[in-house]
Amino acid sequence: MHMSLIQLVFALTGLAAEAAILVVMIKRKLRSTFPIFFGYMAYSIVMLGAMFLVVRLPFQAYFYSYYTLTAISLLLGFGILYEVFVNIVKPYSAVIDLGKMLFCWATIFLFLAGLLTTFATTGNITNGVTAGVTVMQRSIQLMQCGLLLLLLLFERRLGLSWRSHSMSIALGLGTYSALNLIVCHLADRVSPVAQGRLTMLSSIASITILGFWCVSLLLPEPQRKTAQDSPTRIILQRWNEALAATPLSAGSRDFAFAPVDSFIPGVEKAVDRVLARKMTS
Fold it and tell me: What is the pTM of this model?
């Protein structure tokens, strides 16, 4: 009963922090800049309220409701990666088209990986669904960690500030994903008492990150910096010009779903164009 009370306090605290983030984003007029992130926060509140209702349902109904809600949350979290990427590489439209294509392929891969894992897992259907959603969750968390690592490595070269809203969102996502992966790895290797402590640590980390987001979005953003302001912006300019001269510029959607034999040469041509421009510059 004591643990349930603590979990309830954590849930209500997280709910209040998410509501505060929504209020801050509306007041700061950030809803149009980060619509997916705003939707993710709003959905988290709805999901928490829905969980209080579905927990009273029979096991089968609760199981499918829980994993459906979780899958939607994962997709929104994946969408935030693209949103942060777009805000960082503005105003290079061709580079954004390339990113859109890659994220589209990654979405298809995640869906197929989860679907194949579901059907390949032995046992009943509940085991398969659990395994499939877990694979998607781990993959997205690894991507979020990868984005954080990329920004850590190239933060200075791209001229980015950690006080910017895009970087703050990426920092929070990557940090929480890294901690969550560590907790999940240790959970099966420790005692039940230690598992409870790890769960509490994960909840504290989640609330801390929500508070960090609320404060960072509330504070005025430093002088707006994008990849265009970077000392190494010429690299992105070459990529943007080369990509604009490839089939990517004809429509990222059509090119994203093009056959593999046309996809690989298109990327190779873009790389060749970038290298050629680098040698002539």
Answer: 0.75
